[in-house]
Design goal:
This protein is of the alpha/beta class and 360 residues long. The protein has 2 domains: 182 residues, Glycogen Phosphorylase B (Rossmann fold), CATH 3.40.50.2000; 161 residues, Rossmann fold (3-Layer(aba) Sandwich), CATH 3.40.50. The protein is built from 14 helices and 13 strands. A 7-stranded parallel sheet has the order 3-2-1-4-5-6-7, sandwiched between helices. The protein has a 6-stranded parallel sheet with strand order 10-9-8-11-12-13, with helices on both faces. α9 links the parallel β9 and β10. α3 crosses α4 and α8 packs across α12. The longest helix has 15 residues.
């Protein structure tokens, strides 16, 4: 390989559909032409990941899986060191505390100067054990630390004395997530054409608060219907809740969709009723498609909103959700312009590459 180019490795805990993992894939897609970018997943195998997430197939040659056991595994550090040397890695970029532990120490062992660590949320730092571990790792590895939200940066500053700290909000491909025709999108997804359609997307897990949104729908007039994109362990429980409330004909479970822009384009309002969040990409994706967005006031969700059209609602309250949805009035301003200006992935990747060059 021409060593005028740089080899960059992003290390994640596991490659499954999610915001952190989607961002890592975008670094492969939108990285500089003189950067060779790989993603290392500490856990799982390539075969398992490809089966669960078809999007990965396009990146298969840039993916490495270590299949690390759940428990602490010292061998993983030596495996990563060997991999970094084999690839001639110039930049190691870790995402979350597990990758910081293993890949941070391996990068230090290999003498790699350019080390970046992105903190995507800070809920795990409520744990004393995690705080102590992260403090020790930051002191030893000395990475440039990036917060993906101002709220995250503030918390990191409170907890750790670390001078190499900056904030870079996450981004999405604004040329993929574009405005479209609502009628056409609803026809393609077999959704009602003449109803007020609320939508949400994400893993069907308790933390995402789908149950709260379903309970909000029962408090709204029949005109309001709900489309849910995604799958997860709570599907049966959410379907049971829907049936018990008599909402079988008003709530649509669409499963995991490949064409998410079409889903967002079909909606009158996108809602993210989460109980906990980091910096949710779905809120940015929806707004990039021109869809007004409501989020609950958790994590850094508020930082994703267009100031003209976005709605911020108290978390863990279906009544407040229902009130906000019923009182929503479309803005004359599309939220897309805000997203293009603030959250285009090309700008995000460029800022990270500048940081990496500074650390080299």
């Amino acid at each position: 390989m021409n060593k005028e180019s740089k080899t960059v490795v992003h290390v994640v805990q596991h490659l499954a559909p999610g915001g952190i993992e989607s961002l890592a894939l975008d670094f492969v897609s939108f990285g500089s032409i003189d950067h060779e970018v790989y993603i290392v997943s500490l856990q799982g195998t390539k075969q398992q990941a490809l089966a669960k997430w078809p999007r990965l197939k396009a990146f298969a040659n840039h993916l490495v899986f270590l299949n690390k056991p759940d428990a602490f595994n010292l061998k993983t550090i030596s495996d990563l060191s060997a991999l970094f040397r084999e690839l001639g890695v110039d930049v190691v970029h870790t995402h979350h505390i597990g990758p910081l532990l293993y890949a941070g120490l391996a990068a230090k062992q290999c003498g790699i100067k350019a080390k970046l660590h992105t903190e995507h949320d800070v809920w795990h730092l409520n744990s004393f054990k995690h705080r102590q571990l992260q403090r020790a790792l930051l002191m030893w590895v000395q990475p440039m630390v990036v917060a993906d939200a101002l709220k995250v940066e503030k918390r990191l500053e409170e907890l750790f004395a670390h001078s190499k700290l900056t904030t870079i909000h996450n981004g999405i491909d604004t040329l993929r997530f574009v405005e479209g025709q609502k009628k056409v999108s609803r026809e393609a997804l077999n959704l009602p054409k003449d109803k007020t359609l609320i939508g949400t997307a994400g893993r069907l897990e308790s933390v995402k608060g789908h149950d709260l949104l379903i309970q909000a729908i029962i408090e709204l007039p029949q005109q309001y219907q709900l489309a849910i994109a995604g799958d997860g362990s709570q599907f049966k429980a959410l379907k049971t809740l829907t049936d018990s409330l008599g909402l079988e004909e008003r709530v649509f479970f669409l499963g995991r969709l490949e064409n998410m822009p079409m889903f967002y384009q079909s909606l009158d309002l996108f809602c993210l009723p989460s109980r906990h969040e980091g910096f949710p990409l779905t809120a940015i994706e929806a707004q990039s498609c021109g869809t007004p967005t409501l989020v609950t006031d958790v994590g850094a969700s508020a930082e994703t909103l267009c100031p003209d059209s976005g709605l911020l609602v108290e978390a863990n309250c279906s009544q407040k959700l229902a009130q906000a949805i019923k009182g929503f009035k479309p803005s004359s301003t599309s939220p897309r312009e805000h997203v293009v200006k603030k959250h285009d992935i090309r700008d995000v990747v460029s800022r990270y590459q500048q940081l990496a060059n500074m650390g080299a």
